[in-house]
Amino acid sequence: MEFTFPVTYTETPKTRPTDESKLGFGRSFSDHMFLMNYTEGKGWHDGRIVPYAPLELDPSCMVLHYAQEVFEGMKAYRWEDGSIHLFRPYENAKRMQNSNERLCMPAVPEDMFVEAIKELVAVDAEWVPHNPGTSLYIRPFIFATDAHLGVHASATYLFCIICSPSGSYYPNGMSPVDIYVESRDVRAVRGGTGYTKCGGNYAASLRAGQEAEKKGYVQVLWLDGVERKYVEEVGAMNVMFKVGGKVITPMLSGSILPGVTRKSCIDLIRSWGIEVEERLITAEELFEAAENGTLEEAWACGTAAVISPIDSRGW
Ligand code: PLP
Ligand code: COI
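# 2-OXO-4-methylpentanoic acid complex -> structure
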């Protein structure tokens, strides 16, 4: 199916960040955004590209009270020849549909999702940075807009896409980060929303993140919510370990986000002839491997943080 969305160009273009080595993550936003409304009985309608601007919401807007919201995170990269490429956008389109289903929200058709992103990135092409290690971070999100306080699924939604020229997610770039094994709070449980990208998962993760930071760690390593012994994720990233020549990573159990970067790492590593096991991994097993010298590498992976090596402190 073909889609073309009308564009209203900004009359007041912003000044783009000039020093691409200082972009950081998610701090500045491009000139335009994509908006599309959903109304029960009518479906998705009025897709459009408009100047980036604050949104006006009714104070009783359902998302503000019951967090019926899902989002995605993906990147557009500029190649050396100047051309711009999206990284596996259909993976994000499919994952957003899975998130929509769990949160009782209408799905955006995959082709419509990808086309909206392509057209927005084309309008804001100048915002895709050039330096190695930089990209245009793309944040599609959908939220409930009914002005109503009853606890039920909304009948209206807004789909929005914003873009942010970004560099490194961590202030120290690609340096290895220290992680804290969290044993009090849990991020998600099976049957919950852990496998979706819904805002509520991230709100629930903030306290552990703050506590870890106070103790001098950069990220939290989440354990499973039932037995508190199996490793699940690191902050907003999947996690992998190389132990005794093999790569191991937590299996997708329902409480873990199926990362696009995780999938890409598994495919790549297998293509290099290295075995990858997706299974339950206890923190204890990793401590033992660190002690007996078989733990060779540990890293987290995700769109924003890319590949983030884990430091040896604590192992
Ligand atoms: N796990 C969580 C909780 C995340 O928020 C993310 C980031 O999107 C990931 C894993 C990695 O997923 P992806 O590689 O698709 O960015
Ligand atoms: C991503 O890696 O795209 C994320 O969404 C992580 C985070 C900034 C929430």
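# post-check
The chain has a mean pLDDT of 95.
The helical segments are 62-66, 89-102, 110-123, 199-214, 260-271, 283-291.
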